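Homework help thread (please don't just give me the answer)

Our assignment gives two proteins as sequence + structure token strings and asks us to describe the second one. The first is just a warm-up. Here they are:
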Amino acid sequence: MSANQAHFPIAVMARVLGVSKAGYYAWSGRPLSARAQADEVLLRRIRTIHLGSRQIYGSPRVQAELRDQGETHSRKRIARLMRQAGLVGACHRRGGPVTTRRDQAARPAPDLVDRSFAAHEPNRLYNAMAESFFSTLECELLARRRFQSRPEARMALFSYLEGFYNPVRRHSALGYRSPLVYQQEHRPKPATETLLSQAP
């Protein structure tokens, strides 16, 4: 009603909407609830994280970022606030043309990794899930920009890979940790540190 106050009288809008004028004025003068104030503070944090991720992170990665900063919020609440604010993460396209069809009569290739794509330590799984990487690359960089020249595309790719994807981006396969953090957590301890931790 307040947005249309310049065009229509409050009394007319109240009558059309089936509310009283007094009820509208009482509602408009009321301060925000504690939950609404907390949502505003959280939304500011979400906007900061979303912009810092090059507007790529959706609610799962935003939630992981907040958790690492010591804040716990449900994914549904984060998703609701992002939706209301119009914040959208980069997502994989659904549908589209099918370019590869499997020959049903052909024998499938052997499954050398037993469909287990989760690496428990760095450099232990040599199937690098190239299709997943290229899908992510297309979704988060290539589908969102148009390049005027090859050098511009090369610089954007370098910036994405070396400035975001490898050091910062949270990967779901790594428990929503960045590759850098994952490697630091799994780096072998120096011999002196191991001996000190075993000492009584």
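The one we have to describe:
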Amino acid sequence: MKQKETASATEEAGHSISTLTYADVHMILALLRGWDEGAVSLRYNELAVDAVIVSPESSPWAARTDLASQVQIRSPAVGVFTPRASVGTLFKSTEAIGVVDAPGRSTSVFPPMDGKLVHLAVAGGGFVESDNRVAPPEPIAKEWCNAR
């Protein structure tokens, strides 16, 4: 009943209503699968679909993924790694996420960028050498950094 009320109110406002069948969706997806990228406009009976298709390489998210895979938090020294931040913690590049302890010396581990700790590559109490990967950070928006 509510669907009919909404439909009649929408039609009165000058907007047409159409429903997609499984066959319509299947046909649209089959046609779009053949396009690599660009603007596509499909018309079939009363069905109209306009889409912009972007290749994964030129997507704005591709650069973020590449950055995340290249940037790593690395050990600055040889010793035993002790985390100071837990998985899921948001951090700034000025905040130590852990410490590397060696006989007579402790060295803080700082991330190269602001981010979120996704997981630790070295368990707490694990031995690390200089420049070993400790954790991959997930980049975060600059707005968070300024809000803290």
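TA reply:
I won't write it for you, but here's a hint about the kind of observation we're looking for: The longest strand covers residues 38-44.
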